[in-house]
Amino acid sequence: MRRGVLWDSSAILALLDADDADHEHAVTVADRIASERRPSFITNYIEAEAHALLLRKLGRVIAREWLLTGGLPVLHALQQEEERAKAILARHTDKDWSLCDAISFAVLESRGARTAFTFDHHFRQYGRFEVLGLRR
Question: Where do the DSSP E strands lie in the chain?
Answer without folding.
Answer: 5-7, 40-43, 74-75, 115-118, 130-133
